[in-house]
Design brief:
Radius of gyration of chain A: 24 Å
CATH topology of the largest domain in chain A: Rossmann fold
Strand order of the largest sheet of chain A: 6-7-8-3-9-10
Structural class of chain C: mainly alpha
Oligomer: heterotrimer
CATH topology of chain C: MetI-like fold
Number of helices of chain A: 8
Strand content of chain A: 25-35%
Distance between the termini of chain C: 21 Å
Number of domains of chain C: 1
Strand content of chain C: under 5%
Shape of chain C: globular
Shape of chain A: elongated
Number of helices of chain C: 12
Largest sheet of chain A: 6 strands, mixed
Helix content of chain C: over 70%
CATH class of chain C: Mainly Alpha
CATH superfamily of the largest domain in chain A: P-loop containing nucleotide triphosphate hydrolases
Chains: A alpha+beta, B alpha+beta, C mainly alpha
Helix content of chain A: 10-25%
Largest interface: A-B, 42 and 44 residues
Mean pLDDT of chain A: 88
Distance between the termini of chain A: 45 Å
Chain lengths: 370, 375, 289
C-alpha cells in the first residue's frame, strides 16, 4: 500500500455524544503506531472507524489513496485483533488461521497450508493446530487470533488492547513477540491501542495520544514522552502519574521560581527564559528523590502519606500543603505515614506548562546519566 | 481481626483435576497478604476455600481456633470482593452499603452511622444517595469493598483480582485507598492477583503459588532479593530474573568461557546437587564493568528498550566455550544510558546478588533453605 | 450503531417481502376495504364510511366478549409469569438433569394447538377423562360443558399448562446469564433467598420478562383454537373470546363489513396495549437494570 491511511477531519457523534473530534492525520505504510489514551478516550472508536465497522459523522478516510469512508469492513483490506480473544469456536486452530485465506478463493490448498504453518510457527502454535479454541489457554487463544490477523496479510492491522486480558507475565512475553512480528512489514500500517504508557514505551515506534476524542499529540514515541505538548499529554503519558506544582516565576537579579510560599529556588537553565507569570511545573516521579544528588536539586519538605514498595522500587507519596508528590526510588524504603521527609526535585527535569496547559519549556535531553 | 489457619488443605475438582496440593498456612491477625501466581495456579481456589464458597476435599480451615470448614460463608465473618464489581444496582449506594447490616438485623440508627463512616473512608460520602447504576468501575469496586468493611464482625476481607477491570490510572488511586484502609482498620486482608506489582505493593507478606502449590512466602524484599525458587525469580520483577545455565568448579560457576566467583560452600553443595544448574541474577543488579574484569561476562547488545525511567538492554552471550550456543539476558541501565545494538557490554554478576539454583531450588551456603510452605 | 449500507441485503429480503405482501398486506388492505363498504353482492358496493365501526363498537355482544377477553388475558399474565419464573428458578442449571428437565418442560409447547384443546376436552370429561373422573370421585360436581365457571377454570388451566413452559424457558435463559459472582457475594452478604431473588435475579430478568409479557399478552388476547376446541365458546357464550366472536361474525354470519371493521379495531387495541406494556416495562427496566 503506497499512500498509507489518511484521515481528514474525521468526527463521530452518536446520540449527542462526541466520540471522535476533528481527527486529521496520515499513517505511513510500514509504520507501527501506538494509540495511547485513557479508557473512554476514543481509542476503540477510532479503531472501529479505521476498520470500517462504524462510519464517521463527517470527514473522510482514505486507504491506499482510495476513499473508503463508505465502504463496509468486509470490503476493506483490514484485520483486527480484539481484547477478548475472538476465535471461531467450532474451528480448529488451523482452520481459524486459514479462514481469511479460504475466503479469498484464489489461494490454492498448498498455499493455505504453507501460510498457516508459517504463521503458526511464528506465534508458536505449531503444536496446537488441531485443537479447538476452548481447549487453549488465554494466551494461546489470543495468539491464535493474532495469527489469523497476520495470515490475512492485510494492509491495515488493528489491535485493540490485545494483551489487557492476559496475566502480567504473559503480557511481557507477548509484547516482545508483537514487536518481533510486526517489524519488517513495510507495506502495512499497524495501529496498537493501549491505556498503559509503559506498554507504549516498550513497543516503541510512533505514538498517537488521544484524549476525549481528540488527538492531542503524535510523533516518535520517545519524542512525545520527553516533550509533551501539553500538560494533559504529560499526564496520560506517565506512569506513575506526573507530579504537578503550581508555581510563580518572578523576575529579579536572577529568575526565581516560588512554590507554595515556602519553597523558592533559582530557575534552572532551561527555564531561565520564561516570562514572569504563573506556571504549572511537571516532574516525573523518578526525578523526585529522597536525597540530594545534584546541586540544583530543589528541597521540598513534606509529610509522608503512604509508601508502596514493589521489591525493586518504592513509591513514596507525600504531601506539601495541598500538593501531593510522588517519588519513585530504587530499592525498598520503609517509612511510616506522617513522617516528615525532604523530597529533592531534580530541577533540570522540570517541565513548565502555561496555565492553559500548553508546554512552555521542556528539560534539555543532553545531560548524561545520574 | 482473625487468625486464619489452613491445615492439610488440598482440593481436587470433580472431574479429577487437582487444583491444590496439600498445604499448611497461618495468617495472623490484621496482616495483609497476597496470593500471587499465574492463571490456574490455584490461588482463587484457595481464596474460595477460605471464604467458604468452596469446601476442600481434604483438610480444615480454622478461624480464631474454630473449625469452620463446614460453615457457609455468612457464618465466617469474612467478606469478599470479586473481579467484576458486584453491586445491587436497583439500590442506592447507601442501601448497597447497608445491605449486609440489614440482613443481619442491625438497628437502623447504627446502620446509618456505620454507612456514613465507611462512605467517608471510601471518599464516596457525596454519592450515598445516588443510584448505584451507572457509576464507574472503580466506584463500583469501592462499593463492593465498602460492603465488606461495613460489617463490624468482619475478620478478613478477601480480594479476588479486584483491580482487573479498573483503568490503569484509577488503579493507582484505588491501591492507595486500599493501603490507607488497611492502616485505618485492623482487618486481615488477603489479596489474590497475578500482577506482581499489585501484590508487592499491597501486601506485607506475599505467597507465591504455581500449579497448585506454594512456592515461596515472604516479604516483598525477601521475594525480590532472595528468591528461593527459579519460578519466583522469574515471576517477580519486570523483566524477571536472568537464568544463566552453568557448571560449577571449586569456587566459581562457569558460564561459557567465563568464571564467576561464588561462595565455596555454595559450590560444594551444588556439586552434589541433582538437576541442572543455573545462575540467577536480576537485570537490576547486573553491573557494567571494564572489559576482562574478574567475574564479568562478555555480551553483545541485541536490542535496546528505552522506557523513560530506565533502559533495558537485551544482550546475548555464548553458553559454550566458543561463540556457539547463544543465550540472552537482560540488564537494566539508568535513564539516558546510550547503548546501541551490536555494542559489546561487559557485565558483572555481583556476588551478593547472584544465586545458584540446582533443579530450580536455590543453593545456599548455610543450612539448606527449602522452598516449601511454612506454617 | 450505523453500519455501512450493504445493498446485497435488499435482494435477500425481496422474496420475503413478496410473500408477506401477498399473504398479509394485500389481504389487510382488502379488510380495510371491506370495513368501509357494504357489500350486498359482487357488483353492489356502497361506501358507508364509519357506519360499520359504529355498529360494531356499540354491539353489546362484542362488549361481553371484550370483557371476557381482558379478564382472561390478565388472569393468564398473573398466573403464568410468576409460575414460569418460579419454575425456572427450580430447574437444575447444569448436567444431564438440566437437559432432561428442559425437554420435559418444553413438551406442552410442541403439541399442535387443536390437539391441546382435544387433550383437555377428553381429560375433563366426567366419564372417560382422568381429570373429570378424579374430580367427581372427590365429590366435586365438575362439568365444563354445563357450568360456566368450570369451563373458565378449565380453559385457564389448559392455557397455563400449554404456555407456562415458554415463560419458564425464557426466564431460565435469563437466569443463566447472571454471573456466579453475584450469588457468591449475596451469600457473603448474608442475603436471604428472597432478597437474592428481589435484588439480583429479578432486575437481571427484566429484559426477558418484557419479552415474556408481550408474547403472552398478544397470544392470549388473540387466542382461538384451544378454547374453541375445548368448549366451543360455551356453555352459552361464557368462554367466547374476541377472536372467536370475530370469526362468528365473519364466517358464521358472513357479515364482512362489521367483521372487517372489528378486525381493524382489534388490531389497534393489541397494538395499543403492547405499546403500553412495553413502555411500562422498559422504563421500569431502565431504572432496574
Amino acid at each position: 500500500m503506497k499512500q498509507g491511511i489518511e484521515l481528514d477531519h474525521v468526527t463521530r457523534i452518536v446520540d449527542g455524544e462526541t466520540y471522535l473530534s476533528n481527527i486529521t492525520m496520515t499513517l505511513e505504510p510500514g509504520g507501527f503506531y501506538v494509540l495511547l489514551g485513557r479508557t473512554r478516550a476514543g481509542k476503540t472508536s477510532l479503531l472501529r472507524l479505521l476498520a470500517g465497522l462504524d462510519r464517521p459523522t463527517t470527514g473522510t478516510v482514505k486507504q491506499g489513496g482510495v476513499d473508503v469512508t463508505r465502504r463496509a469492513a468486509g470490503q476493506r483490506n483490514v484485520a483486527m485483533v480484539y481484547q477478548q480473544f475472538v476465535n471461531y469456536p467450532s474451528l480448529t486452530v488451523f482452520e481459524n488461521i486459514a479462514s481469511p485465506l479460504r475466503l479469498r478463493k484464489t489461494v490454492s490448498q498448498e498455499e493455505i497450508d504453507r501460510k498457516v504453518r508459517d504463521t503458526a510457527k511464528k506465534l508458536r502454535l505449531d503444536a496446537l493446530l488441531q485443537r479447538l479454541p476452548a481447549e487453549l489457554s488465554g494466551g494461546q487463544q489470543q495468539r491464535t487470533a493474532m495469527a489469523r490477523a497476520l495470515a490475512k496479510d492485510a494492509e491495515l492491522l488493528l489491535l485493540d488492547e490485545p494483551l489487557a486480558n492476559l496475566d502480567y507475565k504473559l503480557r511481557e512475553e507477548m509484547r516482545v513477540e508483537i514487536r518481533r512480528l510486526f517489524q519488517g512489514r513495510h507495506d502495512a500500517v499497524v495501529v496498537y491501542a493501549t491505556a498503559d504508557p509503559v506498554e507504549a514505551l516498550l513497543l516503541g515506534g510512533n505514538v498517537i495520544v488521544i484524549d476525549e476524542g481528540r488527538v492531542i499529540q503524535r510523533g516518535a514515541t520517545l519524542d512525545v514522552y520527553h516533550t509533551p505538548a501539553t500538560e494533559r499529554v504529560g499526564e496520560v503519558f506517565s506512569d506513575p502519574q506526573m507530579n504537578v506544582l503550581q508555581v510563580d516565576v518572578t523576575d529579579g537579579a536572577e529568575k526565581q521560581i516560588r512554590f507554595a510560599d515556602e519553597v523558592q529556588f533559582p530557575a534552572p537553565a532551561h527555564l531561565k527564559d520564561l516570562p514572569a507569570s504563573a506556571y504549572r511545573l511537571g516532574i516525573r516521579a523518578n526525578h523526585v528523590r529522597l536525597a540530594q544528588v545534584a546541586e540544583s536539586d530543589v528541597r521540598v519538605p513534606a509529610h509522608v502519606e503512604i509508601a508502596e514498595t514493589s521489591g525493586s522500587e518504592t513509591l513514596v507519596h507525600a504531601t506539601h500543603g495541598k500538593t501531593t508528590l510522588t517519588a519513585q526510588v530504587e530499592g525498598v524504603f520503609r517509612v511510616a505515614p506522617g513522617t516528615k521527609i525532604d523530597l529533592y526535585l531534580d530541577a533540570r527535569r522540570l517541565f513548565a506548562f502555561e496555565p492553559s496547559g500548553r508546554l512552555a519549556a521542556a528539560p534539555r535531553m543532553d545531560h548524561g546519566t545520574h | 481481626m482473625a487468625r486464619i489457619e489452613l491445615r492439610g488443605i488440598s482440593h481436587t475438582y470433580a472431574g479429577g483435576t487437582p487444583a491444590l496440593k496439600p498445604l499448611e498456612m497461618v495468617w495472623e491477625d490484621g496482616g495483609s497478604y497476597a496470593l500471587l501466581g499465574p492463571s490456574g495456579c490455584g490461588k482463587t481456589t484457595l481464596l474460595n476455600i477460605i471464604s467458604g464458597l468452596l469446601r476442600p476435599t481434604v483438610g480444615a480451615v480454622l478461624i480464631d481456633g474454630k473449625d469452620v470448614t463446614r460453615a457457609p460463608p455468612e457464618e465466617r465473618n469474612i467478606a469478599q470482593v470479586f473481579q467484576f464489581p458486584v453491586v445491587y444496582d436497583t439500590m442506592t449506594v447507601f442501601d448497597n452499603l447497608a445491605f449486609p447490616l440489614r440482613n443481619r438485623r442491625v438497628p437502623e440508627g447504627e446502620i446509618r452511622k456505620r454507612v456514613e463512616q465507611i462512605g467517608e473512608l471510601l471518599e464516596m460520602s457525596h454519592q450515598l444517595g445516588r443510584r448505584a447504576r451507572g457509576l464507574s468501575a472503580d466506584e463500583l469496586q469501592k462499593i463492593s469493598l465498602g460492603r465488606g468493611l461495613v460489617r463490624k464482625d468482619v475478620a478478613a476481607i478477601l480480594f479476588d483480582e479486584p483491580l482487573t477491570v479498573i483503568d490503569p490510572h484509577a488503579k493507582w488511586l484505588l491501591r492507595r485507598k486500599l493501603k490507607q484502609i488497611h492502616q485505618a482498620t485492623p482487618v486481615t486482608l488477603v489479596y489474590v492477583t497475578h500482577d506482581q506489582v499489585e501484590a508487592l505493593t499491597l501486601a506485607d507478606r506475599v505467597v507465591v503459588m504455581n500449579e497448585g502449590s506454594v512456592v515461596q512466602q515472604g516479604s516483598p524484599e525477601d521475594l525480590f532479593e532472595r528468591p528461593a525458587h527459579t519460578f519466583v525469580g522469574h515471576f517477580i520483577g519486570s523483566p524477571g530474573m536472568n537464568f544463566l545455565p552453568c557448571t560449577v568448579e571449586e569456587d566459581a560457576a562457569v558460564v561459557g568461557a567465563h568464571r564467576v566467583p561464588l561462595d565455596a560452600n555454595v559450590c560444594a553443595k551444588a556439586r552434589v546437587a541433582k538437576g541442572p544448574l543455573v545462575l540467577g541474577v536480576r537485570p537490576e543488579f547486573l553491573r557494567r564493568v571494564e572489559p576482562e574484569s574478574r567475574g564479568a561476562i562478555r555480551t553483545t547488545v541485541s536490542h535496546v528498550e528505552e522506557l523513560g525511567t530506565h533502559v533495558i538492554a537485551s544482550a546475548s552471550y555464548s553458553g559454550g566455550a566458543d561463540e556457539q550456543d547463544p543465550k540472552e539476558l537482560k540488564v537494566k541501565l539508568p535513564e539516558g544510558t546510550k547503548v546501541r545494538a551490536g555494542e559489546t557490554l561487559w557485565l558483572e554478576l555481583p556476588l551478593s546478588r547472584t544465586t545458584l539454583y540446582a533443579d530450580g531450588q536455590a543453593v545456599s551456603g548455610d543450612a539448606a533453605v527449602r522452598a516449601e510452605s511454612h506454617g | 450503531m450505523d453500519k455501512p449500507i450493504n445493498h446485497r441485503a435488499w435482494f435477500l429480503v425481496t422474496p420475503v417481502v413478496a410473500i408477506v405482501a401477498f399473504s398479509a398486506v394485500i389481504p389487510l388492505m382488502t379488510v380495510v376495504n371491506y370495513s368501509v363498504q357494504d357489500i350486498l353482492g359482487p357488483d353492489q358496493r356502497i361506501f358507508v364510511g364509519t357506519d360499520w365501526f359504529q355498529k360494531v363498537l356499540h354491539d353489546p355482544e362484542l362488549h361481553g366478549a371484550l370483557l371476557r377477553q381482558i379478564v382472561f388475558s390478565l388472569a393468564i399474565l398473573a398466573i403464568q409469569l410468576p409460575l414460569g419464573v418460579g419454575l425456572a428458578l427450580v430447574l437444575p442449571r447444569e448436567g444431564w438433569r438440566s437437559s432432561l428437565s428442559l425437554v420435559l418442560v418444553s413438551l406442552p409447547l410442541l403439541i399442535p394447538w387443536n390437539v391441546v384443546g382435544t387433550i383437555w376436552q377428553v381429560f375433563g370429561r366426567g366419564d372417560i377423562g382422568l381429570g373429570g373422573v378424579a374430580l367427581n370421585a372427590l365429590g366435586i360436581d365438575y362439568n365444563y360443558t354445563a357450568n360456566a365457571l368450570h369451563a373458565w377454570l378449565t380453559v385457564v388451566v389448559m392455557d397455563v399448562w400449554h404456555w407456562t413452559p415458554l415463560v419458564a424457558l425464557l426466564a431460565y435463559a435469563g437466569l443463566r446469564a447472571v454471573p456466579d459472582a453475584f450469588y457468591q457475594a449475596a451469600k457473603i452478604d448474608g442475603a436471604s433467598r428472597w432478597a437474592i431473588f428481589r435484588y439480583i435475579e429479578l432486575p437481571k430478568l427484566s429484559g426477558v420478562l418484557t419479552i415474556a409479557v408481550l408474547l403472552r399478552f398478544m397470544d392470549s388476547f388473540t387466542i382461538y383454537t384451544e378454547p374453541f376446541v375445548l368448549t366451543g365458546g360455551g356453555p352459552g357464550n361464557s368462554t367466547t373470546f374476541l377472536s372467536q366472536y370475530l370469526a362468528t361474525i365473519a364466517v358464521g354470519r358472513f357479515d364482512l363489513g362489521p367483521a372487517a371493521a372489528f378486525s381493524l379495531v382489534y388490531f389497534l387495541v393489541i397494538l395499543l396495549f403492547s405499546y403500553i406494556f412495553y413502555t411500562a416495562m422498559n422504563s421500569k427496566g431502565e431504572a432496574g437494570k
